[in-house]
Amino acid sequence: VEAFVARTPLDERAKREIVELFSESKDHLPNQSRAEKQKTLAKISYQEFLTNIVGVHPDVVAFFRHWQTSYQAVGIDTTPALNARSSGLPGLTGLGLEESYRGHQHREDFYFPDGNASIARSLVRAMVPRVASGNDMNDIVTARFDYGRLDEKDTPVRIRLNSTAVNVRHIGDPASSKEVEITYVRADKAQRVRAGSCVLACYNAIIPHLCPELPQVQKDALSYAIRVPLVSTNVLIRNWRSFHKLGLKSAYCPGMYHCELRLTYPVSIGKYRCPRSPKEPMVVHLYRIPLSPGLPAYEQTRAGKQELLSTSFETFERHIRGQLGRVLSEGGFDSARDIEAITVNRWPHGYASPYDPMARLHSWSSHTWPAEKRHWVNGRHPFGRISIANSDAAASAMSESAIEQAYRAVGDLLD
Length: 415
What we know:
Layout: H1 2-6, H2 12-23, H3 34-43, H4 46-54, H5 58-64, H6 69-72, H7 81-84, H8 117-127, E1 164-170, E2 180-186, E3 189-195, E4 198-200, H9 207-210, H10 216-223, E5 226-237, H11 241-246, E6 250-252, E7 260-263, E8 282-288, H12 297-310, H13 313-328, H14 335-338, E9 339-353, H15 375-379, E10 386-388, H16 399-414
Parallel strand pairs: 4-10
Antiparallel strand pairs: 1-2, 2-3, 5-8, 5-9, 6-7, 7-8
């Protein structure tokens, strides 16, 4: 850390303080008990911890502002200090609260080459086996899907693509109804289907508009759902010699348009083989989190959505080429020559998020968080023959959260 920080253009005091944060085990709250420390850190942001408790130089705050934002999509001004350790943020080691920190320590993550798409493909193949060959995780990546077999009449499960639900209602009184009716639009034509029950597994904030007969209290709870905006960009490069020459696999760029860039994870599975030689083409991932430090979390979310909706592809491309050129130029990278393709995935409604980032549920406060503020829990209650799922129902942007909520939603209907 010290050798790296010495090469940065930061203020000399800031350099020293960053090294100290990573290397020291100082207790910055020496006069507080363990319980008092937990309460203090749960009520302040990591930025407040750095500024008001540690007393760091402003450059230190700027340096950490986008730390791990590609994973959490929030900045240090809306990250509770108690949760900061699980994001790899330093300065809390000496507080004696290690077991209170949640996160990815001591855990190995697994990545499919195509991300969570392989999870969805595996679920679809399990429900409609004729759609693709194979039967396990080792063959799913290269399995070729016959999408024409998703919606065949003689199968117990039918999946209809390009069909957008626009209305869901009970036939009769929801308390005694035996059926629900779903209206959906396909090929510019509205169609209807009836079922014994249904699960709404979509962005929870739009459910009040899809199902107007819901109780107003539940509509209000669902409307609290917040989605955090972000941009995930994939850049195909001709080769990754520049990364190899620089000894680089990823770069944290707190002052640049994209806060992070990294080579795709080297995953080989089944018949799929990832690039092994620097001479081979490779995908580079870049992440941009449109933060507006100083605004409340909800206002930052709104501002970020507006930015993503109003930014042209040309703007993204210019920043991508410029940033890769600056970061990799010493390795011989040339943006005009070495970039083969760019895909910009802009998600104005991206990660599901806790409704109040400064009051996230963690091991210390989960039992004290008032029930009336658990909007995600209050919103997901089953209503007649309609159940509600999605990661919003867990206030967590993790794939396992979405799966858990699906399991819970189906269980609600069976009960």
